[in-house]
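Appendix B. One record, verbatim.
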Amino acid sequence: MQISLGIHVGHDRGACIIKDQKVVGATAQERLDRKKYSTSPSLPYVAIDKLLHFCNIGMSDVSCIGLSYDGIEGTSFLDLYQREFFAHYNCEYIPFYAVCHHDAHAYSAFFSSGFSDSLVFVADGGGDYIGGMQEAESLYFGKNGRVQCVEKRLQNPPVRRIGDRVNYILPNMPFVIRNAEISLGRKYEQVTHLLNFGWGEAGKTMGIASYGNPYVDFKPPECRGLDFSLKYADLLGQVFSKFFFSGKSFAEFIEEENKNIAATAQHLVEETIVSLINGFFEKYPCRNLCLAGGLFLNCLTNQKVVDKCFPEKIFIFPAAGDDGQAIGCAYYAYSYHFGQKGAFEIQLPYLGIDYPECEIRKVLDEKNLTYEVHDDNALAALVAEYISQDKIVALHRGRTEIGPRALCHRSILANPTNPDMKDILNHRVKHRESFRPFAPTVTQEDQYTYFDLQCSSDYMLFAAKVKPAYQQALPAITHVDGTARVQAISKRSDAFIHCVLEGLKQRTGFPIVLNTSFNVAGQPIVESPMDAVQTFLVTDIDILVIGNCLVAK
């Protein structure tokens, strides 16, 4: 057997196993330790052990290990973690490979894409250090089982952390910081903090941006590579100029202008990304495109790339953030240890843990819950019927999804045709801001009928326009700007959900369901049967479908 283990340390820690060129499993530590983002310098032993057990692999079977962090310079950290790892598992020496942060992102995207060759663009808050500077954006070319970096832009690291006021409140910002370089991802994060959202809440900035108008019509400089400049003070100058002339307190100004500030940041990022990718296509003889890094969880930007750059083929890794690093590390270690002998096999996006029916029933019995057991067809028909009756249905079936988006294996489902459903979900279950949209899941063959898509949207990474003829009919999943963050399901990728969608088409007229993550605000998506049952019991969810068991309140 040829087995590589990928590990990521930092925030969004996780693990991945590749066996004989097949990705057999990957999981994020936060799903298991129930700490959102699971930020720690320690190795994610819970994720490693759970994955080894699930894949029936012992540590003695592992041939090589790839390890990444973020904000590291060089490979000196490797010895520390090797010693810790070998002491913890009391195992013999296993070759370790240190994987550069942006390299891990690039490997995760290219080797999962199935493309024979591709440009690979990585953009996030920041990667590893190089000569006192930090990775900002990187461009790679993938071909013949190798990924080669061809361009890289560096940025100045923030003072202490990006959430410190000196990094986003312009009057508090020393001039040495104002003129420092910043990544596109960190610029978006900077504005997220300015809007009083927390770390990891850039999705809120994206959601509220659709309600506003940019302060300026941003035109990025024409460039054909990563030689552009973006400063810490850029964009903040326009914001604080408007504040100084507003006559309001700063808190009042931010509360009233948050939509427009977010729209300005969104506009800046979209226009810059589109300009860069069009420049790449002019400069390099390849129009296949892979995207990875946390910035490409921004669905509005991804849609602009498709609409304005016209790639021949595009692939965005569903775990584009650091929870996908471990997969890139496993690819990297496998490739360098064994030599690349062909394409890897990966069955996206369901790479996590599955739980047997006996464990599910044991949890239900422990909680004294009454449940019915149905075969898949009968269960799918019941789910469709309940949703058409405006019941809120929580779903826990099969292997968990990778990435931050619930893709119908750990989801809450509801009726997208009910104009009140968004408010009902927020009031009864999700308890989140009203400006944040809910997403649709649609049959793959029908996605182009209802949404203005240029390519299949399998992982909820494109914000396509809901076609005007259907916007009023699908109010619960149509955002204020007329977009929806689409997930398309085929019969092959998930026969059960596809059957539910067909059942909904018979009942509501649309093969579409509202799909949001099975969790409450501030918690990771549920992982185990116990997580699912406990969340069901403390919320006002009507129906729990867990495995082939159905529980009704």
